[in-house]
Design goal:
The chain is α+β, with helices and mostly antiparallel strands and 184 residues long. The chain has a single domain, classed as Alpha-Beta Complex (Cyclic Phosphodiesterase, Chain: A), CATH 3.90.1140.10.
Length: 184
Amino acid sequence: MSGPSERTIGVAVGLPEPFGTELAKSREALGDPMALAIPPHVTLIPPTELNAEEFNDVVAHLEVVAAHQWPFEIQLRGTGSFRPVSPVVFVALAAGISDCERLESAIRRGPLARALKFNYHPHVTVAHDVPPEILDRAFLELADYRAQFPVAQFGLFERGDDGVWRTEREFAFGLSAEPSSLAV
């Protein structure tokens, strides 16, 4: 847990309704103890500890990054898993992968430059650190899951003293179309 002058943050694309509630309920029904503490999302920057001064630099950095982004679509389809490397089952992205990769790369610079433990792979976790039979159940029960939604912002999330992640701030994209499609 963070010290008094530290904050634990993450940057992510939150899932809009009804998809956020649907996947949170699925995760809760599977018995995942983090279902109510972590809203469904596509991680851009994993949990990161910052002191107060770093936090302000991060906010300024995220404002600049968002101003240079354009909206895109995410399509969720089916399930995947990181087993045996990590006990995780997720809903997979079928569209929006390269957009998330581009966004993650832009964010993971400056005050958020960090080495990654694993290669970046955008996904929505639906079961984590639960028994293998629950991971198997999650994989099968959500295999036909489908959702599609526009993305025009990302969020800065913060873990509270109670362990619950909450949106601290949203950063709306500044461009209305992909730069290559803009008139010069």
